[in-house]
Design brief:
By secondary structure, the chain is of the alpha/beta class. It folds into four domains: about 150 residues, Jelly Rolls (Sandwich); about 70 residues, 3-Layer(aba) Sandwich (Glutaredoxin); about 200 residues, FAD/NAD(P)-binding domain, CATH 3.50.50; about 120 residues, FAD/NAD(P)-binding domain (3-Layer(bba) Sandwich), CATH 3.50.50.60. It has 15 helices and 27 strands. Strands 1, 2, 3, 4 and 5 form a five-stranded antiparallel sheet that branches. It has a five-stranded parallel sheet with strand order 12-11-10-16-27, covered by helices on one side. A five-stranded parallel sheet has the order 18-25-19-20-21.
């Protein structure tokens, strides 16, 4: 059959398709799946699922064949096929409940076992062997869709547009495949602009499923267009709501959902938090070769949804109604979420330099994360990294792979007090990295794009100006806790106090209502409300400790729920 040719199978390489991404189930495995679904006939030309569908069913082939294609207007792009007994359909969207990215059409009559999304989730949660096979295949297929830009969205943008960078990072960190058209270099760009009646001043432009056109949209508008939150019920009272999907929030979601709690995670942007922008984390237990923050967050996100957690993307919580139970979290779009307990995992954000024109260059030369996208912007150029912590060290080492030279600026006399030793050694041994102690940025210059950076040595008073177009800021962090004022006790910097850090006087002023016990280890001055990760007073700024706090908090949530 023509569609079987490897040249038409985009998800294959010269060696053919990966057995891990496209395995064939054994007869014994098929027999374990059969009772959970129905066995039915399929006919040539039948479309089992289409791009944009929600609640797509899962199919195991007993006979017959199917082609998987990407709709592209009146045309279709072949992606792969299923034509052997024991092959199955699906990728990560089967687990997350998001819209289907592709079209599946039967090319040869046959027979399949069909499972509903609920039955598939039950299978994955109860059959360890099949769970491993299916989850690995789903994840690997999604990785390949991302690698080849095969999704339901086209992003038209420019590397000189801060909005373009914002949307590329949003889609990338949410693990959503997309086709990127660079208006500065792509010869077909004008044709696309004309087809959708878009002008250059409306860039960036997002085209969803070949029809909906969003001009310079916000991440929330893109999330709505792509149906990120379409299957989430915002009306039911949850056992626990986790605010923030960084490492601590995702860990809490995984443990809560796997232990049978009804859990929702609310994330204002994308999974990962500050760690999500880390190019490589090499001191996290179990990953001797390191793992990127984005990859770690993506795995944790999929793991949480596998166990049934709902994750609300691109929605910020603006207020916690803390004078009654169940607690109510108010979102920026007016929706209200009720919860019997709350875990605050909103993390922290890097402090900004006090420079009058900083905002002009944010996304146009000034960045707060060093991912693959930013590293491509810097290829062959000089860059500046400001900060002495692990995030700054990871960024410097990563950027040195593509940049001509990396300047690290720190206000102290060195790195030893704030950075892991393995990173310090990497920096010291890399001739492309230069450390500037006692140094701070004093001025930024350029038109719309950063062109020059000026810094001053506080010890010598020497001032230098360099023609540098890329500045990475990874300085001290401020907690994201403004929305909790008048609800929980915080320290003078806005970090949330928990457990033994709360003095008797603070608990009395906060009107702690429980006479039979003080707050639990990670519990705030509000019973049943916990704080974990970088938002918590006294936190240890390491991914491992954040994950640990998230998991511990769920143990304490169980105790609180038993009291209600």
């Amino acid at each position: 059959m023509a569609h079987k040719a490897v040249s038409l199978d985009i998800l294959a390489d010269e060696h053919g398709r990966s057995p891990a991404a496209f395995p064939q189930l054994t007869e014994a495995q098929i027999d374990r799946i059969r009772p959970l679904g129905i066995t039915r006939a399929i006919k040539r030309g039948e479309i089992l699922f289409d791009q944009g569908d929600v609640g797509v069913h899962f199919f195991v082939f007993l006979s017959g064949a199917m082609e998987i294609v990407q709709p592209n207007g009146a045309r279709e792009k072949p992606i792969t096929y299923h034509d052997a007994r024991g092959e199955f359909t699906g990728e990560v969207s089967m687990i997350t409940g998001r819209r289907c990215l592709v079209r599946g059409r039967i090319t040869q009559d046959g027979e399949v076992i069909e499972l509903t999304p609920d039955s598939l989730q039950k299978l994955i949660q109860t059959d360890a062997e099949l769970s491993e096979i299916l989850m690995r295949a789903f994840i690997m297929r999604r990785v390949e869709l991302i690698r080849h830009g095969l999704g339901d969205v086209v992003l038209l943008g420019s590397r000189h547009s801060a909005g373009t960078l914002r949307l590329r990072e949003f889609l990338g960190r949410n693990g959503h495949p997309y086709t990127y058209v660079d208006l500065d270099t792509d010869q077909s760009a004008q044709e696309i602009l004309d087809r959708f009646h878009v002008t250059i001043d409306e860039v960036p432009v997002v085209i969803c499923r070949g029809s909906a056109v969003l001009r310079n949209p916000t991440p929330a508008q893109v999330a709505d267009c792509l149906g990120f939150n379409q299957t989430i019920d915002a009306l039911q009272v949850r056992d626990v709501v986790v605010v923030g999907a960084g490492p601590s929030g995702l860990a809490a979601a995984v443990y809560a959902a796997s232990e049978g709690l009804d859990v929702m995670v609310i994330e204002s942007n994308a999974p990962g938090g500050q760690a999500g922008s880390s190019s490589k984390i090499e001191n996290y237990l179990g990953f001797p070769t390191g793992i990127s923050g984005q990859e770690l967050a993506g795995r944790a996100y999929t793991q949480a949804t596998k166990f049934g957690a709902d994750i609300f993307i691109s929605r910020a919580v603006t207020r916690l109604t803390c004078d009654r139970k169940p607690y109510v979290l108010e979102l920026e779009d007016g929706r209200k979420i009720s919860a019997r307990s709350v875990i605050i995992a909103t993390g922290a954000q890097y402090n900004k330099l006090k420079l009058p024109n900083l905002a002009l260059f944010e996304g146009n030369g000034v960045y707060y994360g060093a991912t693959y996208i930013e590293s491509q912007f810097c290829e062959g150029d000089e860059v500046v990294v400001v900060g002495g912590g692990n995030s700054a060290g990871q960024a410097a080492v990563y950027l040195a792979q593509t940049a001509r030279k990396v300047h690290i600026l720190v206000r102290s006399d060195g790195l030893s007090d704030t950075m892991s030793r393995y990173l310090i050694r990497r920096i010291e041994e890399n001739p492309a990295i230069e450390l500037h102690s006692f140094t701070e940025v004093t001025a930024l210059d350029g038109d719309e794009q950063l062109e020059r950076v000026t810094w001053r040595n506080k010890k010598t008073g020497e001032v230098e100006t360099h023609n540098i177009r890329h500045l990475f800021l990874m300085t001290g962090a401020t907690p994201r806790t403004d929305w909790l004022k008048d609800c929980v006790v915080m320290d003078e910097k806005g970090f949330i106090k928990t457990g033994r850090d709360l003095s008797p006087e603070e608990l009395q002023a906060a009107k702690w209502p429980l006479a039979n016990r003080p707050p639990h280890l990670l519990e705030t001055s509000l019973p049943g409300v916990f704080a974990v990760g970088d938002a918590r007073c006294g936190n240890v700024k390491r991914v491992a400790s954040a994950v640990g706090e998230g998991s511990i908090s769920v143990h304490l949530v169980h105790r609180v729920l038993q009291e209600q």
